[in-house]
Amino acid sequence: MEALINRLEALLAENSIFTLQTLSYYGEGLSTTVQLVFISLLIGLVAAVPLAIGRGSKRRFIKWPIFAYTYVFRGTPLLIQLYLIYYGVVFVDGIQETWLWVLLKEPFVPALVAFTLNTAAYTTEIFHGAIKATPKGEIEAARAYGMSPALTLRRIVLPSAFRRALPAYGNEVIFMLHASAIASVVTIMDLTGAARFVYARFYAPFDAFLFVAAIYLCLTFAILYLFRYLEKKLLAHLQPMT
Amino acid sequence: MTRLMPSNTMKKVLSLSILSLAVAATSAQARDYDEIRIGVDVPYEPMEYRTPDGELTGFDIDLGNALCAEIGIQCEWVVQGWDGIIPGLMARKYDAIMSSMTINDERREQVLFSEPYFTPPSAWFAPATSELEETTEASLEDLTIGVQRGTLQDNYVTDMYGDVADVNRYATADDMVLDMEAERLDILFLDYPVGKATLLDSNNRNYKVIGDMITEPKAYFGDGFGIAFRQRDEALAEKFNDALESLEEDGTYDEIHQRYFGEE
Amino acid sequence: MLDLHGYGPRLLEGAGVTITLALLALALAIVLGLITASAKMSRSWLAHRIATFYTTVIRGVPDLVLMMLLFFGGQIGVNVITDFLYYEFDIDIFININAFVAGVVTIGLIFGAYMGETFRGAFMAVDQGQVEAGKAYGMSDALVFRRIRFPLMMRHALPGLSNNWMVLLKTTALVSVIGLSDMVRVAAEASKATREPFVFMMTVAVIYLLIASVSEWIFARLQKRYNIGYGEAD
């Protein structure tokens, strides 16, 4: 390990921008970006399942609020949602005195809330579409077996909807990764934040932004291949026989 | 009729996009400087900011206009975000920068500076309730410090305290003040006159200065504010230096100084 | 009542900037998308490779990073050329990559890549029989494109186009970060000055939803027009 660091340092001694210190900014930025994106996707995914089921409900008082939520969050820029939550919470009277402030004080949590609400809205619509596309025959078959509606949902509808939703959800994951770049606007030192810092310090836009673009590109490819692998495994039964 | 629609729209769309590219390229700049454009980043009260109806004002603006009048040229102000302000000068978006820019060696490599026209210290600002008495590595540990991205204050804080404290970097000074009011920041570090105007004077909440005014080390804090020019525009810089000298002699400088900083 | 503290006119101006920017970027994206789609369908190995490289890279990097690269970096790149002209030939031109141009070009570039995919799929869905029929009538290739391929392709491309436009519209908000006074930036400034973020951010959100609803209506009308002759059979 020691030797590795020494060799890296020797390599970096050649240039003035990518020192060990600035690289550590990128490193921390990478970890922040991954945390932000991963946690918000995870919570968003869990929340989207009941929301998607409710979105397809026949009861208006369940269906309409969910529709309104997804309509607003999908119809407006994430940046506005972020501003609203980051600057908005401050003006809730007395928030600074509550325990919540410990969380909301850091820019990370407001950003996480905004990202989660946003991805949950998109994911809800993706799942809703996938559930709607369930072949009637599958449901009828389940009924014929005497399954209750709840059991049909759990055993038949949801598993097949998840598989159908996989490609669209893969796009959503990539979309969130890219959208997370705006976290730097509210002082979070994510990958883009690190690049902006390096740019402002050294007036070196190409070095700062091309480097970070390459990292994002690698992350995008990693997600792409992960989903391709998942599709291959989970959707194998849908592939034409050869 | 219906059939022709798409190709007509396409033509319009095409000509619009060509138009937009043509707008991007403007040519022919006067070389003898009957009129020059000056880049400035707002708001940075009291140095440069806007009145509610959008008018530019502040110490730099008034002094800059007085300098232009003295030289006898037309001046136009161009607003530009701080992190693009030096590249903008290089790109000839404007011919000078007068925007509370501290003269230091790092920047001297990029631009040509006038003589310093103002030398403010930097200072630490915290809520009046803060128990901080001095700023050391130990006392700042785990606190959140606010700075404006890419400023000498950013460089200083990052190098001195970046390892022990959280540094939040902002695009503009007012973003920073807002987060200070929201209690997201424990302390912030900026040019003293700006902190005085935005936090001490015009705020119903109470803030105070922690510790001494800071002007050292010179490697960070440089030699005061200067007007920046492109390296090759030595003649222009010379004109501004001469004008600055005459304004200092005839009392105009003091009058403008009085207007924004009062008695000190 | 809604009190905008005198920021109303500036917000409206900002909305104008947002819409102009979005429309210009859309125009650029459509042009790039058509070029990319033709390149991807062409037999030229090189054109295919370039188009694939373009769509892959653009879709792999965040919009904001591309925008900053172009806004901050593009200027320096352009300066190298103009400085060369200045010192070598004493030609003093300056090309200004301002936030508006950077915004239009970046958003156009990004959505050109997405449009490319949309158009490619749509062109491939065009019934070859109709193209053959046009040729049999003695139409030139250009005429076949204008009268047959393009209108037929649009029927398939419109849903994707509409989708891309909705995303593009929201992406314009990012130009506020590089300093352009679009409606998001005006709203952000106003929220900070008046300390009333809810009022201004909500107003802008409603304007976005309005623009989106109007666009939806327009696209529905267009879809109807391009679907002429299909409705009954489906």
TrEMBL record, chain A:
<feature type="transmembrane region" description="Helical">
    <location>
        <begin position="66"/>
        <end position="88"/>
    </location>
</feature>
<keyword id="KW-0997">Cell inner membrane</keyword>
<feature type="transmembrane region" description="Helical">
    <location>
        <begin position="208"/>
        <end position="227"/>
    </location>
</feature>
<dbReference type="GO" id="GO:0043190">
    <property type="term" value="C:ATP-binding cassette (ABC) transporter complex"/>
</dbReference>
<comment type="similarity">
    <text>Belongs to the binding-protein-dependent transport system permease family. HisMQ subfamily.</text>
</comment>
<feature type="domain" description="ABC transmembrane type-1">
    <location>
        <begin position="30"/>
        <end position="227"/>
    </location>
</feature>
<protein>
    <recommendedName>
        <fullName>Arginine ABC transporter permease protein ArtM</fullName>
    </recommendedName>
</protein>
<keyword id="KW-1003">Cell membrane</keyword>
<dbReference type="InterPro" id="IPR010065">
    <property type="entry name" value="AA_ABC_transptr_permease_3TM"/>
</dbReference>
<dbReference type="Pfam" id="PF00528">
    <property type="entry name" value="BPD_transp_1"/>
</dbReference>
<dbReference type="InterPro" id="IPR035906">
    <property type="entry name" value="MetI-like_sf"/>
</dbReference>
<feature type="transmembrane region" description="Helical">
    <location>
        <begin position="108"/>
        <end position="127"/>
    </location>
</feature>
<feature type="transmembrane region" description="Helical">
    <location>
        <begin position="33"/>
        <end position="54"/>
    </location>
</feature>
<dbReference type="InterPro" id="IPR043429">
    <property type="entry name" value="ArtM/GltK/GlnP/TcyL/YhdX-like"/>
</dbReference>
<dbReference type="InterPro" id="IPR000515">
    <property type="entry name" value="MetI-like"/>
</dbReference>
<keyword id="KW-1133">Transmembrane helix</keyword>
<dbReference type="GO" id="GO:0022857">
    <property type="term" value="F:transmembrane transporter activity"/>
</dbReference>
<dbReference type="GO" id="GO:0006865">
    <property type="term" value="P:amino acid transport"/>
</dbReference>
<keyword id="KW-0029">Amino-acid transport</keyword>
<keyword id="KW-0472">Membrane</keyword>
<keyword id="KW-0813">Transport</keyword>
<feature type="transmembrane region" description="Helical">
    <location>
        <begin position="173"/>
        <end position="196"/>
    </location>
</feature>
UniProtKB/TrEMBL annotation, chain C:
<dbReference type="GO" id="GO:0006865">
    <property type="term" value="P:amino acid transport"/>
</dbReference>
<dbReference type="Pfam" id="PF00528">
    <property type="entry name" value="BPD_transp_1"/>
</dbReference>
<keyword id="KW-0813">Transport</keyword>
<keyword id="KW-0812">Transmembrane</keyword>
<feature type="domain" description="ABC transmembrane type-1">
    <location>
        <begin position="15"/>
        <end position="219"/>
    </location>
</feature>
<dbReference type="InterPro" id="IPR051613">
    <property type="entry name" value="ABC_transp_permease_HisMQ"/>
</dbReference>
<comment type="similarity">
    <text>Belongs to the binding-protein-dependent transport system permease family. HisMQ subfamily.</text>
</comment>
<keyword id="KW-1133">Transmembrane helix</keyword>
<feature type="transmembrane region" description="Helical">
    <location>
        <begin position="51"/>
        <end position="73"/>
    </location>
</feature>
<protein>
    <submittedName>
        <fullName>ABC transporter permease</fullName>
    </submittedName>
</protein>
<feature type="transmembrane region" description="Helical">
    <location>
        <begin position="156"/>
        <end position="178"/>
    </location>
</feature>
<dbReference type="InterPro" id="IPR035906">
    <property type="entry name" value="MetI-like_sf"/>
</dbReference>
<dbReference type="InterPro" id="IPR010065">
    <property type="entry name" value="AA_ABC_transptr_permease_3TM"/>
</dbReference>
<keyword id="KW-0997">Cell inner membrane</keyword>
<feature type="transmembrane region" description="Helical">
    <location>
        <begin position="198"/>
        <end position="219"/>
    </location>
</feature>
<dbReference type="InterPro" id="IPR000515">
    <property type="entry name" value="MetI-like"/>
</dbReference>
<feature type="transmembrane region" description="Helical">
    <location>
        <begin position="93"/>
        <end position="114"/>
    </location>
</feature>
<dbReference type="GO" id="GO:0043190">
    <property type="term" value="C:ATP-binding cassette (ABC) transporter complex"/>
</dbReference>
<dbReference type="GO" id="GO:0022857">
    <property type="term" value="F:transmembrane transporter activity"/>
</dbReference>
<keyword id="KW-0472">Membrane</keyword>
<keyword id="KW-0029">Amino-acid transport</keyword>
<feature type="transmembrane region" description="Helical">
    <location>
        <begin position="15"/>
        <end position="39"/>
    </location>
</feature>
